[in-house]
Structures are given as C-alpha cells and as structure tokens.
Amino acid sequence: MFFSKKEKSLLAVADGRAIPLSEVPDEAFASGILGVGVAIEPSGGTICSPIDGVIESITETGHAYTVHSDDGLDILIHIGIDTVTLGGKGFLPMVKEGYKVKTGDVIARADLEAIRTAGLSTVTVMLITNPERLEKNEPQLGEVQSGKSEIIRYRLLK
C-alpha cells in the first residue's frame, strides 16, 4: 500500500510582495547560510505567525522572532535589514516568549515609515533555520496577504 507524504505550507507573515532570498540586501540572508526561505517587501506593518507553534525567542529590540512550529520547524522572522540599530524604535511585540500561536495570529507591529526614515530596508525575511528536517521546500513568490497566502510549501523528512 502506498502513502504519500503530506505537503504542508507556511503562510505569509506580512502583506506585500514575496521575493527570493537572493534579492535580500543582506549577504547573510541572501546567501541562504542562515536557512532556507523567502522574503517579503511589506506594504503594511502587521506581522503574523506563519504557522501554529510557540514563540521561542524575541530579540530585545523586537525586530526578530523565532517560532517553533508544532511539526518541529524553527522559523525566524526578521523585520527589516539592520533594524537592530534602531534599538527597538518602531517595533511593538504583541506576544512574549513561550506564547502559543496559531497561523495568522499577530505577533508584532512595525512602523515601516520609521524604518525607512532611518534609511533602512523594510524587507522582512522568513527563514526555516533547521532545513535538514525538510525533504522539499518551494517558495511561492508574488503578491501575498498576511496569514492568508501560502508562501512556502514543504514536506518533512520521515
């Protein structure tokens, strides 16, 4: 008897346009050395969880979050490029470490205008930082809606 492995998906963390990591203006993200994923040029500052899981970590400055998914993936959400330099200005965490989240739950709000005014990119990166757990991952590019649009299709290794 044949059973196919179930394909799953991560949803967009923000409204905007999904782009390949190679277009991110930061070599560490663009090279894929930190993990596999996709980035979004956001049109709005509401950031949502891409999957059901637990908030594993939040940077002191509120610009980066890690969600440990119910199926074992570690997903890094990094709002903007070099935004750590803002010292938390323009970021409002809506969750705390240890919070259980569902797909589409708001985890942060970012003031995109404050980021741009500081001369920084608002490109928001979503990475799977433990890609060795994946058999397959396929980014879905183009216009996306936060918590609604599929952004990465994946299948876990057995």
**Spatial sequence of strands, sheet with the most strands:** 9-5-6-7-11-3-2-13
The average pLDDT is 95
CATH superfamily: Glucose Permease (Domain IIA)
The counted number of beta strands is: 14
**Share of residues in strands:** 35-45%
User: What's the overall geometry?
Assistant: globular
Please summarize the sheet with the most strands: 8 strands, antiparallel
Please tell me the total number of domains.
1
CATH fold-level label? Glucose Permease (Domain IIA)
Helix count, per DSSP? Answer: 2
Q: What CATH architecture would you give?
A: Distorted Sandwich
Poorly predicted spans: none
Radius of gyration: 15 Å
Helix content: under 10%
Q: Gap between N and C termini, in Å?
A: 17 Å
* CATH C-level name: Mainly Beta
Class based on secondary structure composition and strand pairing: mainly beta
The helix/strand series, from N terminus to C terminus, equals: EEHEEEEEEEEHEEEE
